[in-house]
Write a structure and sequence with these properties.
about 575 residues, alpha+beta, Dipeptide-binding Protein, domain 3, 16 helices
Length: about 575
């Protein structure tokens, strides 16, 4: 979730939620007590309350909005997203590197020079060798199941399988301890954003093989792991070997962070509403739909945040499964889906809005269109039935839909179930634990017919972070696969190559928007909604800024702290 230039001003601010039944809320930055964005004091512990565990602590494996934001506290890369408080929070800025990359005239070589004084927890210096080693882990078929961009953009031998299996990667050079040189397959003008991906984290040479770091951290950021009880607690403490003089991104005001995992979402809401004890220092994700009406009291309105929606929730249709290999069947499903019911099931318009495109309006390249229109977004049953009749499936069929084992996600699945039932399609829901959901649906051998998931920009200045990962048929992996439709269409692949070769990013974004429409004509996925976040932080928490890149529109952890470190 990274980006070089601003896509929309909406992601740069955090605002108070004005609930429909109430008067308008005040601007967050001007509230009487310093608001949500006041500079935090030094010290104290920030608490994070969450339902599900993180996918992985290893940044080569994990790659979703929640864990990427967590990684920002403990890991660093050559470049990274500017803090949410920056004038342009979506800009890519230097991190371990002294500056952004120097690119050769032909666009195929990028060179970075490391800062002085950067080290791992424990004091070992971070050199170009450790940066190279950490990045080369992305090619390991077992470990490197996270962000795909390094593998897609950096040149590498066709049979290269990472440092543990194949050894050195010759297309990344380290002429000295401070210099690292990357050779690309083809020009990629947004390469600074590629090395800002979480799997570009440096690792000590020889470490991190197998399952060694699923539950461990090799910290390069301001915090190190103090304790991790999977499914229960993660505690972070200060990393004494992190030098703030080398880091212009992470404020790191709290002394510690404590993540409490496995809480029932309704319990989280109750605790934050009560705001007792250490919960005055707590933050969490979005509130439950049933909680929204309770936020109408003036006291709760003052600390209720409406965060911008930047992620598309969609249903991937597995084109390798019959009868979903028939485009008419996929188009029928696209017509039959009731997006209004899905938004309502997700908590209503305060928590989302219907989407008919893959690219959300907050991502550069977005194009407005609706190939499968219906009255009030409730679905066109007649058009869907006609297509099923043409496909010889007038009596319908049965499909299995993978969904996360969470109440709101089940509600989305049930809304799909009810909509498709109108055209004789029986939907069986397959519930998967949230902590393992992305890995499961990202393993083609474990995929069922369809899955509801979401996609957020890895850098919002370019639609290149949406279209290729989801629809390039040459990037269907045995693990860590993001092309859930498993569509491998030569025309789509060729158009992706054409657009990626364009050096004018703005012109390329226009083409990405057109390609969005061309792809959805084949209906490999069904866009459902763009989700919004409504959050209720504790009254003692401040430094709350949204970030499209680092936090998928949520609160960027790097600026968070406490107004009074002694409180709670």
């Amino acid at each position: 979730m990274k980006h070089q230039r601003i896509a929309t001003a909406a992601v740069a601010v955090v605002t108070t939620l004005a609930l429909a039944a109430c008067g308008g809320g005040q601007d967050a930055s001007s509230s009487a007590d310093g608001g949500f964005t006041a500079e935090p004091a030094q010290g104290g512990t920030v608490h994070v309350l969450q339902n599900a565990d993180f996918s992985y602590l290893d940044p080569a494996r994990g790659w979703d909005g929640g864990v990427n934001n967590f990684y920002r506290l403990v890991y660093r890369q050559l470049t990274t997203s500017a803090p949410g408080s920056a004038e342009d929070p979506n800009e890519i800025v230097p991190d371990l590197a002294q500056g952004l990359g120097e690119v050769s005239d032909d666009g195929l070589t990028w060179t970075y020079t490391l800062k002085d004084g950067i080290a791992f927890a424990g004091g070992d210096p971070i050199t170009s060798a450790e940066v190279k080693f950490g990045i080369s882990r992305a090619w390991d078929p077992e470990v490197g199941i996270g962000s795909p961009y390094l593998k897609q953009v950096i040149d590498a031998p066709e049979d290269y399988e990472g440092p543990y299996r194949s050894g050195d990667l010759p297309t990344i050079e380290t002429p000295d301890e401070k210099t690292i040189v990357f050779h690309l397959k083809e020009p990629f003008p947004e390469f600074d954003a590629v090395v800002a991906q979480v799997n570009a984290t440096p690792f000590p040479e020889g470490s991190g093989a197998g399952d060694e770091f699923i539950h461990e951290i090799v910290a390069s950021g301001p915090y190190r792991l103090a304790e991790y009880v999977p499914g229960s607690t993660i505690q972070l403490e200060r990393n004494p070997d992190w030098d703030p003089a080398t880091d212009e991104v992470r404020a790191a005001k709290p002394d510690a962070w404590e993540f409490t995992i496995g809480l029932d979402p309704a319990t989280i809401d109750e605790r934050l509403i009560a705001g007792q004890g250490a919960d005055v220092n707590a933050i969490s994700g979005t509130v439950q739909p049933a909680t929204l009406p309770r936020l109408q009291t003036p006291q709760l309105q003052e600390r209720t945040l409406q965060l911008p929606g930047i992620c598309t929730t969609y249903m991937g249709l597995n084109t390798t499964k019959k009868p979903l290999d028939d485009v008419r069947v996929r188009q029928a499903i696209s017509y039959a889906v009731d997006r209004t019911a899905i938004v309502n099931a997700s908590g209503g318009t305060q928590l989302g809005e219907p989407s008919t495109t893959i690219l959300p309006s907050t991502v550069a390249g977005h194009k407005d269109f609706d190939l499968y229109p219906s009255a009030d977004g409730t679905g066109d049953v007649e058009a869907a039935q006609e297509l099923l009749d043409e496909a010889g499936l007038s009596d319908g069929f049965t499909l299995t839909l993978d969904i996360r084992a969470q109440e709101s996600m089940q509600a989305q699945g049930e809304a799909v179930q009810q909509a498709l039932e109108r055209v004789g399609i029986t939907v069986e829901l397959n519930l998967i634990d949230t902590a393992t959901y992305y890995e499961t649906i990202g393993t083609p051998s474990q995929q069922h017919d369809a899955a509801i998931t979401g996609w957020c920009p890895d850098w919002a200045s370019s639609a290149a972070t949406f279209i290729p990962p989801l629809f390039d048929g040459r990037n269907i992996y045995e693990k860590g696969n993001s092309n859930l439709a498993q569509i491998d269409d030569p025309e789509i692949n060729a158009r992706i190559d054409e657009i990626k070769a364009m050096t004018d990013i703005d012109a390329a974004n226009v083409e990405w928007g057109d390609l969005d429409e061309e792809i959805l004509a084949l209906a490999p996925v069904v866009p459902l909604m763009v989700a919004r976040t409504v959050s209720l932080p504790g009254e003692n928490v401040t430094g709350l800024h949204a970030s499209a890149n680092a936090a998928t529109g949520g609160i960027d952890y790097v600026g968070v702290g406490l107004k009074d470190p002694e409180k709670g």
